[in-house]
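Hi support team,

I'm filing this because I wasn't sure whether my run with pyridoxal-5'-phosphate finished correctly. The job status page said complete, but I'd like someone to confirm that the output block is well-formed before I use it downstream. Pasting the exact inputs I used:
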Amino acid sequence: MKGKFPLEQFAKMRTPFYYYDTELLRTTLRAINEETRKHEDFCVHYAVKANANPKVLRYIREAGLGADCVSGGEIEAAIRAGFPHDKIVFAGVGKSDWEIELGLDHDIFCFNVESVPELEVINELAGARGKTAKVAFRINPDVGAHTHANITTGLAENKFGIAMRDMQSVIELAAQLKNVKFVGLHFHIGSQILDMGDFQALCNRINELQNQLESHHICIENINVGGGLGIDYQHPNRIPIPDFKAYFDTYAKHLKRRPGQVIHFELGRAVVAQCGSLISRTLYIKEGTHKKFAILDAGMTDLIRPALYQAFHKIENLSSEEPMQTYDVVGPICESSDVFAKQTDLNAAHRGDIMAIRSAGAYGEIMASSYNCRQLPKGFVSEDLM
Ligand SMILES: *Cc1c(COP(=O)(O)O)cnc(C)c1O
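And here is everything the job wrote out:
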């Protein structure tokens, strides 16, 4: 089974480009809202780093999600897309002064702080502006996730967050600083997580930490559990929408919440991955010694995930219904790692055939580079092609 695409329009367009199916995006957002509505004070922030295309952001803002930003540029993108300032959170292990000042000037909801020196700088910059910065501490929960080593973030050896043993002293330090206000804890254990047991392990850890803090009369208004829910890269057509019910139910069931506590989620990939495809033309079919290569006009500069994480993306030849043949699908970039898929089956391909590289809405367009002096790929939503 292949996805449905406006192939006639594609045929007239210059490739490569990203195409976002906004009907699927809207259905996905509706599914998120339907699930979160079932639970009191569940609040979802979209992780802007997954895709900051302004048209995509607009749909997400219209659905009422907040924005989770990891840079000043993302705060600007979120503001430009109309996200309310009090629904913006700002995380990141290395925030520059100008980025902190930008957050302060926009009165964002909260800074997710990852170290004591950062806390001190935020306190100082907020003081200079006569403001109080709301801060949450990102705690490294030392919880592993069953995902690719490069995208696990919650282990003690990762660079992210404050160690659990320092948590209490950092909260006490914040209480002494005049221009910051402690409002909660933040966690994020990794990305592309499909095993709900990993999120359950995070819940158990948060419960422990919360008991510990409570015994010292420290209460926590907000718990931000980060993002990380994965998608089905193998079956974008059969399973276009992640299992949000299982995800939110896991937190509802295992997190021991205190009255009035707000739970924040930061979903990126699960919101946007399936609605996006990288659309490309086949330049050449090349017969190698042992195999056939389909050489596309899209490369790792347009979608780096396969080269960076050995990520799998399903590829469909939209122009052919001929019997399947086996190809290595590669790009034109002068790097041996510029390979989208090895030994993959496609309907027999010819020069000019349009290929869709699926599930590319997250960490695709936003990670594009101009290496080899290539143009950055454009992004189109369904409405653009009507
Ligand atoms: C990347 C990131 C997210 C989003 O991760 P997804 O796997 O795309 O859901 C959420 N929170 C933080 C702090 C992140 O760095």
